[in-house]
Amino acid sequence: MAHRNRPRPWSTRLGTATLVASAVIIGGLPVAAAAPPGSSPEDHYAGSEIAKHEGVARSAPTHLRDGGVAGMDVSSHQGDIDWQAAANNGARFAYVKATEGVTYTNPNFGQQYNGAYNVGMFHGAYHFALPDVSNGVDQANFFVDHGGGWSPDGRTLPPAMDIEYNPYGDTCYGMDRFQMANWLSAFSEQIRARIGRYPVIYTSLNWWARCTNNNPGFGANPLWVARYADSVGDLPASWGGYSIWQYANSGMFPGDQNAFNGSYDQLRAFATG
To answer: pTM of this prediction?
Structure first.
């Protein structure tokens, strides 16, 4: 079936930049800590640091509950994906890592982002945030300019910001709760200014409590919550409900396992905005 306003296929012609281990102070932000040995953007994806800090369920659920819609998220860590196989196994949406910080772009983004769309899935892009390497506005612009846009085609999900434990150093990126809230707000507002929608925020209950002191001011952003357990449990402050639950880091589909909190028609509405 033909689709109007189909997004232009993303090109990876920009190539891959590697993330620097330290950064110049920008706008009063602290310098990024040196990367631990072996730490690379290729190893950072939605939940990679949450799994390290919070652990995973011994027996991760491999099926959906409460009528949710099955989905997945991937990054260059998975390489090229057999999207038809994922769709045949029941995946109906996918989030794909596009960027990290202000230098890294996913070398597999084109195959992953367009591949999900081409087999009929909903697709969206996410950014691995590093608040200590640039201000939120610059990082939001880098994301939008390298795959983090949005199209009202009914199949493109709002872009997401992955904010979790710092893989390179201090858990909260050397920021206090006020600095973190300001950074998150700047990123969020710039995404909205660029594409007309607030980004989804991906995070965990524990990280949000620790690094924002349970900031309640982000309810306009849809929540993508990470919890590797048999139930979603308590939600981070700001939210009385969630849009997506990342419930396992392996299972039926490549990458992480997700469930949209609603019906297929509601997922379409979520994409349409």
So the answer is: 0.83
Q: 151: which 2 tokens? A: 């199209």
Alpha-carbon span 120 to 98, nearest angstrom: 20
Predicted confidence band at 65 (pLDDT cuts at 50, 70, 90)?
low
- Return the higher-pLDDT residue of 234 and 18: 234
Greater pLDDT, 210 or 47 = 210
User: What are the helix and strand counts (H, E) for the chain?
Assistant: 7, 9
Segments making up each domain of the chain, as ranges: 43-272
Catalytic residue among 49, 73, 100, 132: 73
Is 3.30.559.10 the CATH number for 43-272? no
Lowest mean pLDDT among 47-61, 99-113, 132-146, 234-248: 47-61
Catalytic: 164? yes
For residues 206-234, one letter each, b for 16 or more C-beta atoms within 10 angstroms of the residue's C-beta and e for the rest, the string is bbbebbbeebeebeebbbbbbbbbeebee
Q: Can 73 be counted among the known catalytic residues? A: yes
Active-site option among 42, 49, 164, 256: 164
**132 assigned to active site:** no
CA-to-CA distance for 2 and 273, rounded, in angstroms?
Answer: 21
